[in-house]
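Obj: model holo form, ligand = flavin-adenine dinucleotide.
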Amino acid sequence: MVVDDEEKANILNTFFSTVFTVENEMLGEIPRNNENPILRVTNLTQEEVRNRLNKIKIDKSPGPDGIHPRVLRELTTMPTHRSIHWFRKGLRLHDNPALLAAMRDCDELHPIFILDPWFPKNMRVSVNRWRFLIESLRDLDENLKRINSRLFVVRGKPAEVFPQLFKKWKVTRLTFEVDTEPYSRQRDAEVEKLAAEHNVEVIQKVSNTLYDADRVIAENNGKPPLTYVRLQTVLSSIGAPKRPCPAPTDENMRDCRTPWKSSYEEIYGIPTLEELGQDPSKLGPHLYPGGESEALQRLDLHMRRTVWVCNFKKPDTEPNSLTPSTTVLSPYVKFGCLSARVFYWRLVEIYRGRKHSSPPVSLHGQLLWREFYYTAGAGIPNFDKMVGNSACVQVDWDENKEYLEAWRECQLMCPGCLVMTVSDLPQARTGFPFIDAIMTQLRTEGWIHHLARHAVACFLTRGDLWISWEEGQKVFEELLLDADWSLNAGNWLWLSASAFFHRFFRVYSPVAFGKKTDKNGDYIKKYLPILRKFPAEYIYEPWKSPRSVQERASCIIGKDYPKPIVEHETVSKRNIQRMKAAYARRSGKDGPQSPSKKKGVKRTASVAEFFKKK
Ligand SMILES: Cc1cc2nc3c(=O)[nH]c(=O)nc-3n(C[C@H](O)[C@H](O)[C@H](O)COP(=O)(O)OP(=O)(O)OC[C@H]3O[C@@H](n4cnc5c(N)ncnc54)[C@H](O)[C@@H]3O)c2cc1C
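Output (holo structure tokens):
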């Protein structure tokens, strides 16, 4: 029922003058009668009205009509909502407009996180990333406690959980952050429908990205921009990203409470690794603890390095430095422990009045790459697949389990390793130390430098092993702390020259690339200690060392460390030709006789033929 302010004031006047006077200090009996206008207007129970009135401190000087003005104000803006704020990504209090919306005119707030079984069922998540999530939830709960609230971790499928919660907590409003990933869109649409059936208002706010991806697509004639420059043009017509909103304080919770009982710890507590079926003994070093507090501290630390920030050029950073040469804020941005808008606007402050680098290589530029892939992911159907993805070149990748396992350092190859600690795990074994060191860092630590990702992604796909980027995407999805659906798919599309980037003839050498920034091979020695005694001359190509050198290094190639699984010079040249053929097929330049165009002929056959002809 909608009641305007004047009508509300009239109702309250009548109510106060008859039942509830300031003289008895708000403690008079509220009629039990359902017809009580206050109860009708506010939708609250009698007890809730009483609690609310008791909170208001009254002096003995009522307003002109006998009602204390503050009481009138408070009651005419009486909170009428019981809100759930649903944390998914966005695991933070700062720059969380949906959380603020949940608190507005709210009497009872339930901040929740749902442990949705869809995720472990449909994607592999490393124990390191589970730890990051648990820490982020713990930190979120601590930060909520500071403003007199708590986090409820609910177990179950959202579509099953919500109807129960709506009823149990008498919810009138549900808020959450917009998420454009396919599963999220489908899940959220289902939850919205359930909310409507339960008369629950739904409020969604954009805060995961700098811009509303759907708006960017709309501004670009309904299509996601397919180049960075095009994205920049569209964004310049929209203007600067919105400024972040402040974190709520206990003032936002003044009229609102989160009902929490000690018994809830058991039902709604933060899960442990064991509950999630994870083995803590498999954890890697604790280099990047999760959580908003950690994220903001790390952002502060980086932003204090003004000169570094202003000079930041991504291509000049090193893939194989012993400590990260970029911010490693990606896991925090991925889980939403850090708002991209906060990151963006902090950079604006630093750049102001100073000479600084620009997109695409600057730190602002990095955040725009994120926007680029998010927008593409939001607008291109089957973005994480080759088949059915309109932006993706159709390539006849090989299936080669042996190569894939050598690259991904597959545990299945080593039955005993399931009971081993991380340091005992078998090292990657492509036989290229630079590639194997990167994959070992990925598996143990969960983060690798962007150019290191370039090196191993190119090696797996168009560079050397000719394995589909979708396979690489799955491995990254499991092992990266920052694994993010749109960014992972988009970057794999790029690196495999399947979309966005088309200079497939530029291939990274698994030997020369790493040498440029680490001649000594210290990075390799750190992650592949078996090679630590090799002289710098051979550290990138130990198979070329004389037997005597291998003996001195206590590492015989082919026995203690594998020989290279492919000959880079040969396969990379062949692969360029295969890529050329795929591009020709895409543009229809392979002529009427092209086997790929004939019905019933598989692509693999077409390429085999292509090479026979050569
Ligand atoms: C094959 C491949 C897969 C990738 N998968 C992911 C992924 O799943 N999740 C992920 O966050 N990044 C992914 N990236 C992008 C990039 O490598 C990481 O974002 C970056 O290395 C993170 O380190 P940083 O925080 O130090 O980055 P910085 O250089 O400090 O950049 C700051 C922030 O900008 C964003 N950013 C930087 N580079 C990119 C980029 N190329 N694309 C999109 N956003 C970027 C990140 O949020 C990052 O935290 C992938 C790159 C490749 C080549």
